[in-house]
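Lecture 7 notes. Example A: sequence first, then its structure tokens.
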Amino acid sequence: MQKAIKNVELVKVVITSTGNAEFKLPQTPNIEGRQIVGIETYKQSELPVTVDGLATLNDNALLDAFISINNGSKDVIQNLPLRKLVSSLNSGLLPAIEPTKVDAQKCTLKFGQTSHLYAGEVCLIVFYYE
């Protein structure tokens, strides 16, 4: 029987420049050094704006985005396509990940091309942790 997930952290990565193809995750004290057991994101068509009124990452950019998760010394997850973290695109399922510690400021969000990026959009990433 699986344990219930009790801890969730929503991380917002703001697209500050359309000329950048790589963005660092912001400092996120609640998940620093914690065991991450799941990661999820959403398409813009599912969640068009954040609670503070910012537009979420457009679907074309999301389909061309990748996340790398760092544990402080190395990337334990490299270039995982964000589309795999959208449950509605994967029969309601999220990929199984090995529980891993995370250093959020060393985690990156990368885009294959910048033509779909719009400054001010926000990529929402949900971390489930123990």
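Example B, a different protein, same format:
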Amino acid sequence: MQDGWDEPTTRCNLARGRAQRTGSRGGAASRLRTSTAAKAPHRIAVHALIATTCLALGPLLAPPAAAQATWTIAEELRIGSEDAEQYSFSDVRGIAVGSGGRILVLDSRVQEIRLFDAAGKFVKVVARRGRGPGEIEGANGMVQAPDGTIWVNDPPNARFSVFRPDGSFATQHTIPIRGYGYVWGAMIDTRGRLYDPISVPDGKGGYTGHFRRVAPSGAVLDTIAAPTCQSGASGAPRSVWSAESKTPRARMMMTVPFTPTMQRASDARGFVWCTPSAVYHVARIRLERGDTVAVIDRNVTGPPVTAAEREAAIRRADSAFKRYETVDADYSDIPKVKPVIEALDVDDAGRLWVRRATSDAASTTFDVFDETGKLLATARAPFRTSAFWHPIIRGDVMYTVALDADDVPNVVRARIKR
């Protein structure tokens, strides 16, 4: 016996088994039990009484459910300082892990890719602003192939620049890039094929999301539709503010702060996890066929938007809109509750990491699931991650962009303790 649970549970199981076996089967075994019971009829009554009692008290006698596993994410290296230019970042749009644990960081604002050693010491600038081979003009992201090479998206130069794991320039692939997002949401699968997110006209005046698949040689293979999310529960609709000027002619679109938007995370094995983010509903979808192979639903709601968060969002919007002549924005559009899911991430083992919105602005909470949708653990990091950046998670190590109290980005390597 342990903690008073094993003995009554075992008795209930035995009683149920005896009650079910007695007279429940035909043949010699049944006749033998009937014959034996006839010699001791009180045993049947006792077993039946215990079984009936267990049915009534089952929920009370059941052992307590196992406690939810909790993993901790412990920071072990941070790169970022205002005192030295090489260590100061303004707009990190990509991280890659090179040979020997080296770390490559793309700072979009200055258009540089910097190389650091495994101890976080600056080594050199791998790529600078420019239009020549190995240079970048408007790079907005990096992804890594199975062979370790690092692909950099460079829309103004209409090409993908490829670097070796040691940071040296390898080659470039010229390809038309007609539109792109804030951070490049590409993925390279286990066969080395690049999935480049693009928008395709839908024939109705709008656009639909697709992936342009590119071979390791740089040749375009085909285009497949990107999965969309269906929740079965209504969430807040996507809401956008706009602003424009005639002199000079310019237009800007801004998503209303804290409005739920579709979030996706690609799995190199050929799947995409997708959520509408307003509700805790996540689906695992096969890219080739578009069929859903796993679904996660949890009864979890997002935290409220605080007054301080709302005021900060309005200040950022005011700062962005002041350069435009006409502004179409209504600050009452800001929701009172945050989306329950901030982002989705996938590690090298195919596990899903759901970044859940919380009221703690100084930390990050993840719910971790296996590829079937089974909840494995909740993981907590003592730092705030950028909502636009997908961390690199390999084994027990996480590389990510962490924001300090002033929203200045730092590059962090952390250890996952299970």
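Note on Example B: The helical segments are 6-21, 27-39, 41-61, 307-321. Residues 130 and 136 are 5 Å apart (CA to CA).
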